[in-house]
What does this fold into?
Amino acid sequence: MPPPLFTSHELIELTITADFSQLKGDRDDEAPERPAKVILRDREGAERALDAQLRTRGTFRKDRINCSFPPLRLNLKQNQLEGTVFSGQDKLKMVSSCRPNRSSYGQLVLQEYLAYRVYATVSRAAFKVRLARVTYVDESGNEDTSTRFTFFIEDPDAMAQRLGARVLDLPEGTSLPPGVLDPPTAARMAVFQYMIGNTDWSDAAGHNVELLDLAGIGLGVPYDFDFAGIVDAPYATADPILNIRSVRERIFRGWCWSSLDMHPILETFRAAREEVLTLYSTFPYLDDGERERALRYLAAFFEDIESTERAQRRFLRDCRPLP
It folds into this structure.
């Protein structure tokens, strides 16, 4: 039986109490784990208290110049989780507003959450996510209590195990030869990144891509979409070498797989069109303006891939030559 956290998209309600004043100061790589208390609430209002620890994580969003509230990892005590939505979990990445005093940043969290959901409509090799409404209570009293949307991301090892693979840890500063990647999986991910307007990734280097070994074949699973055009975070910038004006401008960054037939890959995206657009149309927590902006952006992508020949020309123009 799969762990319950990622078997539903129903919103979770919880409160996390910790010394967030200390956590906001934990910005280096050796930051310690801080004690926390998690209170879960079910639909009937019943509460369940769990002991946990929190630790800051990440790189860009952990830098205080970019974000006033750093990304966190929740470390749960497994012997307390039976019968809860967290049963079977251990350490979980959390994505929350990095500037809680600005309501627009809460919408960025929801847009990034939806990007994960979109990729899961076209690929099994995708991270599962679960949305929560979390009340953050600072036990030091130095920070205001706030309630905001947060989402949890499936643990990489759990995701790999689900796919029958293992996480591939690249030594720092090294890259994976693109030739060991599975071409259809790599191409599908590249089309998705084009779809959401994301250029902040590299499958070969494992940048914002979890690399897996599936019986000697390399699979890339994307994550971290806050620099994507569909999210359009105020701090997101495009690499100058790409010669694009903003992150909203799409450019294909996949490999030039000369012998790969793109038609079935593009057909996968065409077949997912209604599911993707319905996901955004019916998602209740986006502001109307954000929803319409995202729908227009996605509509332009589906127009781009209406014709396989047209899409092929665009992708071949910008694809990266295999070494």
